[in-house]
Amino acid sequence: MSTESAVDRSRLAALADRERATFARRHPRSRAAYEAAGHLFGRVPMTWMNKTAGGFPVYVERARGARVTDLDGHEYVDFCLGDTGAMAGHSPAPVVDAVHRRLAGLGGASTMLPTEDAAAVGAELSRRFGLPYWSFALTATDANRWAIRLLRAVSGRPKILVNSYCYHGSVDESLIVVGPDGRGQSRDGNVGAPTDVTVTSRVAEFNDLAGLERELAHGDVAAVLMEPALTNIGIVLPEPGYLAGVRELTRKYGTYLINDETHTFSAGPGGATRAWDLAPDVLTIGKAIAGGIPIGAYGLSAELAGTLLGRTDLDLVDMGGVGGTLAGNPVSMAAARATLEHVLTDDAFAGMTATATSFAEGLRKIIDGYALPWSVSQLGCRVEYRFADPAPRNGTESAASADAELEDFLHVYLSNRGVLLTPFHNMVLMSPATTAADVARHHEVFAEALGELLSGS
Ligand code: PMP
């Protein structure tokens, strides 16, 4: 059976309308706050916040652990967790204490001078990910941008290769997909590209070593920037041998390898890099490692760091295009140290992953109960379902399996019953504070949604 034949579209549309009306009735204060925000571009602090199945965003009043409470007083089990920024849970006590100590006790949010916390964070990131030298940014996007600049400089090559339907932040080079003719083309909707993306980038499908080799053979690729598993177009896991093949090919063609672990950090305390014994030249990360306080970071191999520091022609200290005034600030560093030492610990990951495993098992049971051709993928403490079975093998297949109407219905249905999912896809994340009861609550509501949709009960 296909999703198309299982789902009666007119029933779906009617239920979605009903749920949106319920959403509007349940959220008078959120709606009023949205309507009063006339001086915000798109009425929101950041335009992505308009991605909401209910028609306007839920406004946050409070957030603690795995719970969010909105302005209208509804409490949610939060499986979105700021799309990973709050994977440590909202406002974990050690992070709040460390930030308070820094800001209120010692003082200094923005000094452009180092604190001792930074060295401790660098050492801990080295222990976890295996790369010996670290530098900081405020977002994962900037960590990627600066890594790209550094690798262009050392390689003397112009292009960056990414996987089709990847996401690495608003990095211009990454907004390329494999087109229907098999060649790279700009991703739909790309805003203000500085130049035709095929001038700066090459692209290959995830899990396609032949395609990767074809592109690398041009000899003009400075670096492959990739997630060890795709996450932003749904979880797409690497097939056996694929990641080893990528490393072999990048070495063969003199191309550096950047692992972007911003989301795949869910795989374990050292991300997919440690879980799967990978050896990138550069590792980028952000979001979760400072417990919700802005941060980005990149780690460099010893060889690369040595080469870069030896290049007296590169201005790494002033106007060379790498760095930022607030990067490495005392608050980010205090928060990251507390998160890594006390919250997202090795033990915490074991618990979060066990919670995710039980989430995935329960979800599969419900989906199988309706014989739906959907797949469930797990990456450590992250779980996602796609409307395709078997699970998509690459970004293009995963993009093709999206069903915006169905997703919106499930999101608003869950939200009306106190369960929040990441608005961009059907992804759920487990924090150390997420409980078995939270998982059960999701499954109860999810089963109820499918019951109404598929059997009219
Ligand atoms: N890399 C990956 C893999 C991401 O998923 C994201 C954000 N979703 C980013 C980078 C960019 O992170 P930020 O928005 O914090 O810059």
UniProtKB/TrEMBL annotation:
<dbReference type="InterPro" id="IPR005814">
    <property type="entry name" value="Aminotrans_3"/>
</dbReference>
<comment type="similarity">
    <text>Belongs to the class-III pyridoxal-phosphate-dependent aminotransferase family.</text>
</comment>
<keyword id="KW-0663">Pyridoxal phosphate</keyword>
<protein>
    <submittedName>
        <fullName>Aminotransferase</fullName>
    </submittedName>
</protein>
<keyword id="KW-0808">Transferase</keyword>
<dbReference type="InterPro" id="IPR015422">
    <property type="entry name" value="PyrdxlP-dep_Trfase_small"/>
</dbReference>
<dbReference type="GO" id="GO:0030170">
    <property type="term" value="F:pyridoxal phosphate binding"/>
</dbReference>
<dbReference type="InterPro" id="IPR015424">
    <property type="entry name" value="PyrdxlP-dep_Trfase"/>
</dbReference>
<dbReference type="InterPro" id="IPR015421">
    <property type="entry name" value="PyrdxlP-dep_Trfase_major"/>
</dbReference>
<dbReference type="GO" id="GO:0008483">
    <property type="term" value="F:transaminase activity"/>
</dbReference>
<dbReference type="Pfam" id="PF00202">
    <property type="entry name" value="Aminotran_3"/>
</dbReference>
<keyword id="KW-0032">Aminotransferase</keyword>
